[in-house]
């Protein structure tokens, strides 16, 4: 399902955005029967409320959409999507009341409200279709919505149907749609090609571990995206309790998000050289599982002491980052559902990111506001470097003590980025409660903010 704007304004029902308390000013210019209808229904413009105004034939002739107050709007996003979800099937157009600087975000929210994960059950999202508001880039918004829907579908699909094989196929499908190339290193070939940590984490699973390498574009600055593709995480020999394992189908959310972002980039034809690296594994339990106390040697030669097999995401990312750094791209960005510590710090709605580039951080913050894709900068805090140095090896994959877990994981990853400008996102990838344009389930985080920020950062 690809969300799209309505292709015609014919018979479109006008939607009037009304701030709370503004219903009287609007209805004063309407015929008496409309004024009476608004009053009789008690419409006040409360955020997310709506009122269908019938014509003489009983069919809707207009919609009033509550736009609330500035204080209420600040507590959420995609407010028009809340209205769209309750409208009858049909075509609608924004007639008045929507600030020009919010038109793009609200139109995107309407598009995303059409999403429903229907692979296993017949269900639908919003049936109401919107005519693209005047002044918005409809092509761009549709590309963003399509990329987000890809991310959601990949995360929502359980590991029974989204193991490393299926994730690889998803990359081939995406590459085929946009003329990209794909190379895959699988199983024991990972050892031969020097990806020892990807192999160690994934070797116990029925489906072989692999490194997926997609390339697109032959001119412009080089951008490498690295996404954690742990298709299911049992925790390995440090087995997770049942409650902690319940959502582990989403542990490939980083891979899903970089693929959604890649689709946006390719669909919009950005002038850059894109590389996507996905270490795809399942962290399983078997007689050949890697063990606590093992010491692994990564692709770049650094040794890593394994103090917890449930801190596996940083291991597979390390080999992929080391590979990416060998070409010294202009920017390398990793995205991963990496630590519970990040959720404790900022909750499920914010995507924390780490970068040493102040200009990129500022661009990300601005892009996040423009795209209604909230992010929050966290520090590569150098004094904590010693926490990831165990003494017996170069690095510790799970420092004791439990403090600063997201920061130490980010510092660990930075050790494999070499001299490449590096940014890391520690995302959640899941919306735990339904919200406008964001049903419960898989969700992209940080991709829209990055899409907005990268042109300025890369000089596109």
Automatic annotation (TrEMBL):
Keywords: Aminopeptidase, Hydrolase, Protease. This is Leucyl aminopeptidase family protein. It comes from Lutimaribacter degradans.
């Amino acid at each position: 399902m690809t969300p799209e704007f309505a292709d015609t304004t014919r018979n479109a029902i006008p939607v009037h955005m009304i701030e709370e308390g503004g219903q009287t000013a609007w209805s004063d210019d309407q015929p008496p029967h409309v004024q009476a209808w608004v009053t009789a229904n008690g419409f006040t413009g409360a955020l997310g409320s709506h009122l269908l105004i019938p014509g003489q034939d009983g069919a809707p002739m207009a919609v009033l959409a509550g736009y609330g107050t500035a204080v209420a709007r600040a507590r959420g996003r995609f407010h028009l999507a809340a209205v769209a979800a309750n409208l009858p099937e049909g075509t609608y157009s924004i007639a008045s009341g929507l600030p020009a600087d919010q038109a793009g975000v609200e139109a995107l929210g309407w598009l995303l409200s059409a999403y429903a994960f229907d692979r296993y059950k017949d269900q639908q999202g919003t049936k109401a279709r919107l005519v693209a508001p005047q002044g918005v880039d409809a092509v761009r918004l549709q590309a963003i919505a399509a990329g987000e829907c890809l991310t959601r579908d990949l995360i929502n699909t359980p590991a029974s149907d989204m193991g490393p094989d299926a994730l690889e196929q998803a990359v081939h499908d995406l590459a085929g749609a946009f003329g990209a190339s794909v190379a895959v290193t699988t199983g024991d070939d990972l050892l031969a090609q020097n990806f020892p940590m990807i192999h160690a984490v994934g070797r116990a699973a029925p489906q072989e571990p692999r490194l997926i390498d997609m390339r697109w574009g032959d001119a412009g600055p080089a951008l490498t995206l690295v996404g954690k593709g742990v298709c299911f995480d049992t925790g390995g020999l440090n087995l997770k309790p049942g409650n902690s394992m319940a959502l582990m189908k989403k542990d490939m959310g980083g891979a899903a998000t970089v693929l959604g972002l890649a689709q946006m980039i390719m669909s919009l034809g950005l002038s850059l050289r894109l590389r996507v690296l996905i270490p795809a594994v399942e962290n399983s339990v078997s007689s050949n599982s890697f063990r606590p106390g093992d010491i692994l040697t990564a692709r770049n030669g650094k040794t890593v002491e394994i103090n917890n097999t449930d801190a596996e995401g940083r291991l597979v990312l390390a080999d992929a980052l080391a590979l990416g750094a060998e070409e010294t791209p202009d920017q390398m960005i990793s995205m991963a559902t990496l630590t519970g510590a990040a959720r404790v710090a900022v909750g499920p709605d914010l995507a924390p990111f780490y970068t040493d580039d102040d200009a990129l951080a500022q661009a990300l913050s601005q892009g996040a506001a423009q795209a209604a894709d909230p992010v929050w900068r966290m520090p590569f805090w150098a004094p904590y470097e010693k926490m990831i140095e165990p003494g017996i090896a170069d690095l510790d994959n799970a420092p004791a003590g439990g403090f600063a877990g997201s920061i130490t994981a980010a510092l660990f990853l930075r050790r494999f980025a070499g001299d490449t400008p590096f940014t890391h996102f520690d995302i959640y990838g899941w919306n735990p409660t339904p919200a406008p344009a964001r049903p419960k389930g898989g969700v992209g985080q940080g991709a829209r903010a990055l899409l907005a920020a990268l042109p300025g950062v890369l000089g596109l």
